[in-house]
Design goal:
Structural class: alpha/beta
CATH class: Alpha Beta
CATH architecture: 3-Layer(aba) Sandwich
Organism: Pogonophryne albipinna
Radius of gyration: 20 Å
Number of domains: 1
Strand order of the largest sheet: 2-3-1-4
Number of helices: 3
Largest sheet: 4 strands, mixed
CATH superfamily: P-loop containing nucleotide triphosphate hydrolases
Pfam families: AIG1
Family: Belongs to the TRAFAC class TrmE-Era-EngA-EngB-Septin-like GTPase superfamily. AIG1/Toc34/Toc159-like paraseptin GTPase family. IAN subfamily.
Keywords: GTP-binding, Nucleotide-binding
GO molecular function: GTP binding
Shape: globular
Length: 118
């Protein structure tokens, strides 16, 4: 005859996992492009990731900014963009900003991090 077990006996506590440790060991750096509608939000997140204030959250920049630092013993590069998602940005300005972001993330970004609107 089969024995019944309770749910609490079968369940193990959930562990928090991170894919950051799964980066190949030969990755020299992780390049992240920050996108979203709020300069302050993107800058605050960038500062939190890097653990220091490198992006000015009060004064919005009209160009892409690149800062790098250490995150869990790995090199991380953050590229903070001007408001690329604004519907009224002129086409020439959008093209220039995208080219700048591509240049700053050379040889290319690994992650586009899209922040939700406030």
């Amino acid at each position: 005859m089969a024995t019944a077990s309770t749910v609490s006996e079968d369940l193990q506590p959930l562990k928090r996992s991170s894919s950051f440790e799964l980066l190949p060991p030969d990755f020299s750096e992780l390049r992240v492009v920050l996108l979203g509608n709020s300069w302050a939000q993107r800058s605050s997140l960038g500062n939190s990731i890097l653990g220091e204030t490198v992006f000015n959250t009060k004064k919005e920049s009209d160009q892409c900014l690149r800062f790098s630092g250490q995150f869990k013993r790995k090199e991380i590069v953050l590229i903070n963009t001007p408001d690329l998602l604004h519907p009224n940005i002129p086409q020439w300005k959008l093209s220039q900003d995208v080219k700048d972001c591509v240049r700053l993330s050379d040889p290319g970004p690994h992650v586009f991090l899209l922040l939700p609107t406030a």
